[in-house]
């Protein structure tokens, strides 16, 4: 007797729509849907994405999409979750490799700008432009993600200030006496978000990393 395979129903429908499409393993279809959604968001001209357009791009019916995601909002939630896992995985790597707190914050900022440059569609999610007209919980979810980023930056800069105070003569980055990690972290995140918005508004023509090195020195020191 043939073993029962999950998503056979999806494969049958999708094969009838796109008979030469590669058969995906269980779970891979969800990833493919999110990848396609992110790719559609990369169009320089911002247009509201419908499930019908998304299904057509993939080559399946809308019903097939809803077997994997209950709603379009859930698709965006999946994309936000992917972004969050990716960013904090990279943040944790930076913190593990770089002992200096100020340099940690600088590396995190550069990573966030480079992530945006490489993932313009996801930048539209991070700026919430792609979420206009969608469920308000999605914007709240992005705000929570950004609050986590700011908390990480505060922690890095507090460490940097402690290092500067304890080892002033050996510290590679001298900091002023009135250095405020909380204010600097808030300013740094505002700078990053501003760069994301400019990147989106320019139709992805103005790189978020442009002149970032010099500007980050002004913010962090």
Please mark out the parts with pLDDT under 50 across 5 or more consecutive residues, or reply none: 1-21
CATH hierarchy, class of the largest domain: Mainly Alpha
Instruction: Give the total of domains.
Output: 2
Rg (C-alpha, Å): 21 Å
Coiled coil: 128-155
DNA-binding region: 50-69
Region (Disordered): 1-22
Protein name: Nucleoid occlusion protein
Task: Spell out the key features of this protein.
221 residues; 2 domains; Tetracycline Repressor, domain 2; mainly alpha; disordered N terminus; elongated; 0% strand
Characterization of this structure:
Helices cover 67% and strands 0% of the residues. Helix 6 (101-118) packs across helix 7. It is elongated. The termini are far apart. By secondary structure, the protein is an all-alpha fold. It is built from 10 helices and no strands. The protein has helices at 8-17, 28-40, 51-58, 62-66, 72-97, 101-118, 120-126, 136-166, 181-201, 212-220. It has 2 domains: 8-66, no CATH class; 72-220, Tetracycline Repressor, domain 2 (Orthogonal Bundle), CATH 1.10.357. Mean pLDDT is 86; it is low at 1-21. Pfam families: SlmA-like_C, TetR_N. This is Nucleoid occlusion protein. Keywords: Coiled coil, DNA-binding.
